Structure formats: C-alpha cells, structure tokens
Amino acid sequence: MHYITDFAEGFMNLFTLGGENFIGWMTSIVPVVLMLLVAMNAIIALIGEERMNKLGELSAKNPLTRYMILPFIAAFMLGNPMAMSMGRFLPEYYKPSFIAAQMQFCHTSNGVFPHINPGELFVWMGIASGIKTLGLNEMELAIRYLLVGLIMNFVGGWVTDFTTAFVAKQQGVTLSKTVEL
Length: 181
Description:
The protein is mainly α. It has helices at 2-26, 29-47, 49-60, 63-78, 95-108, 121-133, 138-171. The radius of gyration is 21 Å and the shape is globular.
C-alpha cells in the first residue's frame, strides 16, 4: 500500500509542479506575448492589412527578402516568439520556409541583439564567458555568429522551399504562391 500512495503522491506532485510552472508563465512570458500581439495588431490596423499583405507579397518574390531581410526585421522589431507571426502575410507556399528561417534567426542573433531571444540568453552568455576567458573579443564572435546565421537562415529557408514542394507534390496539395487579399 505504501508504494501505491507514494506513486499517487508523486503523480499528483507532477501536476502541482506543472501548475506552478504555468502560473510562472502567466506572470512572465504570457503578458509580454499578449502585449506584443496587441501592439502588432494595432500597427497592422494603422498601416492597414492590405498594405501588410502587399509587403508579404513583395517579400515573397525574392528568396533574399523572404529568408534574410523579413526574418531579421521581424525578429528585431518583435522578438521571439512574436516574430513568427509575420509569416501570416506570406503566401501559403512560403510559410514553412519563413518559419524555418525565422526560428534559426532568433538564436543566431542573441549575441548582438539580446532582446530578440532573452529566454536563451544564458546559452550565449556561457559561450561568451568562455571566449572572454580565452582573452578573445566576444563581440567579434557575436557578429560572426549573426552573419553566418543570416546565411544559414537563407539556406535553411530555401531548402525548406524544396522540401515543401516535394511534400506538396507527394500529398497532392497545391499551395498558393500569391497572397490572397
């Protein structure tokens, strides 16, 4: 009986800890994301959804703008995880590729722009402290990481284009390459 009660207490403790974690999110990241969402929707309302769709359509015409410039602007202005929401203005065909590029950029820019992904700043700080211990300049590493990240984001986005085409063909699905206004 002792084992059964210990198991039941441990099982319930799992949910208690999950609830505590959830409350931690409710007092930290959830309000921030909610306020960013409100701000982004306010900006979209001021600019106009039609203009934002046109921006997405213009960005979608060129892989460089799709996978280097738009993810950079979205991450710099909105941070992680709100930067992913800019993909809603792209055609359906390019959304998976944009998300692939965007997710990578939120990590590779942390050294230069820590506000983009503060939740993972500890990773960069650990690497930077090692570089500093070696007597090297951590900002040089941060810039190299950012530049290599931009190139790799582009490659990742473009490769995902080919993957999307393959899967769409395999599944018999046609995804639009134009923004539906």
